[in-house]
């Protein structure tokens, strides 16, 4: 495996194709690849695959397949963890490898798998920027600059948010746990919909009314950036109670009722539903009267305002305090501005760093002694400039994507 970087470059591939090339030639099973076997494999790839997307899928997919499942990305990402200088500090924290890899895989599928099928096709890979990001891994030493998929800081924010909610640390959370996110900002009805199966899939996803860390990645990114195609689909699925592909006035009123009750409890006068409905119809401008489709919301540049009105009390009040004209200006701004998710992740990471620097005293005035887990998390938070480079290991480690053993106070090894 140590020679595959030079082989990848000789084949005209980006450096971090070395893992897929190694696996495609059977190296993951045997630990090494002969020149004869590699040449035979690469000749077959060149004959049958006519662009980078087809080649990448061919190298990673399981025998007999024609698309990529989540587990197909594990060897590739383990090699990134093992050899990218921006992740060198993870050498002594192997238990975090699987968490980081799971996060990146979920982000890949969140962005690339537009069909929600659970398998990425060549066509989906072509339409995405994933392979461009893989190529950038070679020249970008700071992994945190690759915010679309690979940022360690983004992983750290997501994992810490999950850890705060997962009080028994079994890597599963229930509806009561999730409701505590952002100080109970999201309505009970919407939390119930997240657990209904509307936006979760697979045999291992739901377990006795609980969702996994992988599901939480989708939830958090969707909650903090409601302007992306996937997040709009995510919340549309949740609000579409009968699954008929349109949001009826009944469904809108169903969610708005709880918002009104919560506003009343805060001594805030709520708009009557009829007035709110008029505002939202003016905002979305649906093509068919009395019904809002997914296409309507994707065409509307303020889908985040629409969704927050019906199930996020804090963000709804924030929108109400700002003039609509300023919201439209923000939605129409051009240029390389940060996305809502990137802005949120940067702010939350800064908060986590500041809390560590301050020692974050407990409510009774005494500083809490860090648990083994918190000590490990604190160590991993150190800035990139302070992370030492280390000699790259040669093997590809095995990572289990979803299943983890419970191991006391400290995180279990992967």
From TrEMBL:
EF-hand domain sequence ranges: 227-262
PROSITE patterns hit by this protein: EF_HAND_1 (PS00018), EF_HAND_2 (PS50222)
Listed SUPFAM superfamilies: EF-hand
Top-level division of the source organism's lineage: Eukaryota
UniProt entry tagged with the keyword 4Fe-4S: no
Coiled-coil intervals, chain numbering: none
Pfam families: EF-hand_13 (PF17958), EF-hand_7 (PF13499), P2R3B_EF-hand (PF21161)
GO molecular function: calcium ion binding; protein phosphatase regulator activity
InterPro entries associated with the record: EF-hand-dom_pair (IPR011992), EF-hand_13 (IPR041534), EF_Hand_1_Ca_BS (IPR018247), EF_hand_dom (IPR002048), P2R3A_B_D_EF-hand (IPR048855)
A single cellular component GO annotation: protein phosphatase type 2A complex
The entry's keywords: Calcium, Metal-binding
Function: The B regulatory subunit might modulate substrate selectivity and catalytic activity, and might also direct the localization of the catalytic enzyme to a particular subcellular compartment.
Name this protein carries in UniProt: Serine/threonine-protein phosphatase 2A regulatory subunit B'' subunit beta isoform X4
Provenance organism: Physeter macrocephalus
